[in-house]
Amino acid sequence: MREEIHWRQADTDGGAALRESEARLRAVVSAIDQGYCMCELVLDDDGQPVDYRFLETNPLFEAATGLVDAPGRTALELVPDLEAHWLETYANVALGGGSLSFEQESDAMGRRFDVFATAVEPRGRFVLVFSDVTERRAAEAAMRESENRFQNMADSAPVMIWVTDADGTCTYLSQRWYDFTGQTPETGLGLGWLE
Q1: pLDDT tens-digit map of 59-70
Q2: Which tens digit of pLDDT belongs to each residue from 92-105?
Q3: Dist. CA 90–CA 113, nearest whole Å
Q4: Which of 33, 50, 86, 102 has the fewest beta carbons under 10 Å from its own?
């Protein structure tokens, strides 16, 4: 069960405290190092979600999405080929009243996002806090590919190959090492290779 946090402040000065609270919140949203937006679902005559409209964005929204002047415009207006799963996911959050964290790629936008979505009042609205993780995921994939190439080369070489860090802990042993010594990854990696 999600715990609700309620912000209360006495209104003894004709709304000044509320204005100060809103200003503080806007300052925080503008300063975070992630994209932010508040959206509302666009419903058809039968009450079914067909799109969502951006209501607010922070300065990093544009850099993270590539979408310019989004407030007041809809997602499909800005990205006509946007995948249906985005609307489905956000409609489930906005209408279901929950929160969700996920990572998803958008081919239409050419980006991958790490997203936190949560419903806000009134019903049908939701807030997103997100990061564009496209470059990070591409770098991780390139690193895995490089490691795979190294391992294939090392395992095919006619010599034993090993990799250790500065304190002598072994992080890689080639297949030739295992064939020659009879060790396994469980017994050879770490400091076991010294046996």
Answers
A1: 889 988 989 999
A2: 999 998 899 999 99
A3: 14
A4: 33
Residue 7, φ and ψ in degrees, nearest 5: -95, 125
Instruction: Evaluate whether 173 touches 188 at the Cβ level (below 8 Å).
Output: yes
User: What DSSP string describes 103-150?
Assistant: EEEETTTTEEEEEEEEEETTTTEEEEEEEE-HHHHHHHHHHHHHHHHH
> Which residue type does 173 have?
L
Q: Say how far apart CA 127 and CA 120 lie, in whole Å.
A: 7
What are phi and psi for residue 21, nearest 5 degrees? -65, -45
Token readout for 115 is: 């997203």
Q: Which residue has the tokens 């395992």?
A: 155
List the one residue out of 128, 108, 103, 111 whose CA is nearest residue 35.
Answer: 128
pLDDT at 38: 94
Name the residue with tokens 């946090």. Answer: 5
Query: 79 with 67: CB under 8 angstroms?
Result: yes
Q: Which H or E run includes 78?
A: helix 75-78
Supply the pLDDT for residue 6.
43
Alpha carbon separation from 93 to 55, 73, 124 (Å, rounded): 17, 20, 9
Backbone angles phi, psi at 147, to 5 degrees: -65, -40
**Contact by Cβ (8 Å): 161, 154:** yes
